[in-house]
Specification:
8-stranded mixed beta sheet; alpha+beta; two-stranded antiparallel ribbon; single chain; 5 helices; Aminopeptidase
Length: 199
């Protein structure tokens, strides 16, 4: 199960945190983007700020609380502005699947790659051993991000997307290293994980 107490976390310019009502407008706007509609495999056909707020109340918050689903916000670390969505789903005691999309106004800044690193860290801190992902063969950007974040292609097969469509999918997998207890100390060095403090 996922451990929500491990959130929020930050890597360079990207934060990974629970979604809030203030993300609703940017999330809804991002889902209108052609690339997000084509490759995001969103379960709903259309999103409005109000439907996103309802989703947060009725699905996102309970899923994170139970540890069975994490619909998270990728945020700009300096401003906390919503820059994308990252989801961990099909969670078991050993693994979870990750999916992500980046808001069109935030592309090209490295948020996808850092978001996958943060997702791997979050999954590892939650005791999971493996992260998986699926993408369409024509989604070269997603394949590049996954490979750069340490995922490897394991198979190609026809499957069902989270949106319920049957199509050819490329399956990726990342094995997670055993969890490191922070802070990590040696005789000359003390490393600690950066956890942002509230206002």
């Amino acid at each position: 199960m996922l451990d929500a107490s491990a959130l929020p976390i930050t890597l360079q310019d990207t934060g990974l945190r629970p979604m809030s009502d203030t993300d609703a407008g940017a999330y809804a706007a991002g889902t209108k983007d052609d690339a997000v509609r084509r490759f995001g495999h969103l379960p709903e056909a259309d999103y409005s700020p109000e439907s996103v707020r309802r989703m947060i109340r009725e699905e996102v918050a309970p899923g994170l609380l139970s540890g069975t689903l994490a619909v998270l916000a990728l945020a700009d670390a300096a401003t906390d502005r919503f820059v994308g969505s990252l989801v961990l789903f099909d969670v078991s005691t050993e693994s979870a699947e990750v999916g992500f999309w980046i808001h069109p106004d935030a592309r090209g800044a490295g948020h996808a790659h850092r978001g996958l690193e943060l997702a791997s860290h979050f999954a590892q801190r939650s005791g999971l051993r493996t992260l998986t992902a699926r993408t369409l063969p024509e989604n070269r950007a997603s394949q590049h991000c996954l490979t750069a974040a340490g995922f490897r292609e394991v198979e190609r097969s026809v499957g069902t997307t989270p949106a319920g469509h049957r199509t050819e999918l490329i399956h990726f997998r990342r094995d997670l290293a055993s969890a490191v207890e922070w802070p990590l100390e040696t005789e000359r060095l003390r490393l600690r994980l950066h956890v942002p403090r509230g206002p």
